[in-house]
Amino acid sequence: MGTEIAPGGWLSTALVRALVANSLHEEALKEIDGWIESDIIALLFKALVMAHKGDQSRFDQLFEAFKVENTDDHYWTTIVAAWGGHREEANRLVAQIDQHHFGAVTLTQITQWCGCGAPFDLDATPNFAAKLKEGNLTWPPQATMDFPLKDW
Predict the structure, then answer these.
(1) Model pTM?
(2) What's phi and psi for 70, nearest 5 deg?
């Protein structure tokens, strides 16, 4: 396997996301348990699997555990919140990010990594919305994965 030759997070991340996108959930969970050394990253990817499967109960358990371990990071918490349909929480977090000088860049990256279309509502991010309008960019972006728990 490539991770034996080139260890590190990027190959594992790409593999897990590809497995999830193709609904190969059990295989994704095996990869997470076999190759992901960081507990916080394992929680993140297990939450991804459960969000993609539509398992709200298990997703919420993993999301709560993720937030306990990841208290200062709005970036990944926003993404995980969006995967699981926690719209208000995602909007609350991005509203704070939007106030930062580099908020638009961070919100663009959040949108890309989420793969869920719109991970938040534009009205929660007036500065980011203004940048989109200024650049004549459309919203929402196309989702690259299905997330049945997310209804927006």
Answers:
(1) 0.92
(2) -130, 60
The half-sphere exposure of 2 on its side-chain side, counting CA atoms within 13 A, is 8
One pLDDT digit (tens) per residue for the chain, 152 residues: 555 666 666 788 889 999 999 999 999 999 999 888 889 999 999 999 999 999 999 999 999 999 999 888 899 999 999 999 999 999 999 999 999 999 999 999 999 999 999 999 999 999 999 999 999 999 999 999 999 999 99
Q: Domain ranges in the chain?
A: 1-71, 73-143
DSSP 141: P
In the block, which residue shows the tokens 């459309």?
138
Please say whether the dihedral angle defined by the alpha carbons of residues 127, 72, 76 and 118, taken in this order, is positive or negative. negative
* H or E stretch at 116: none
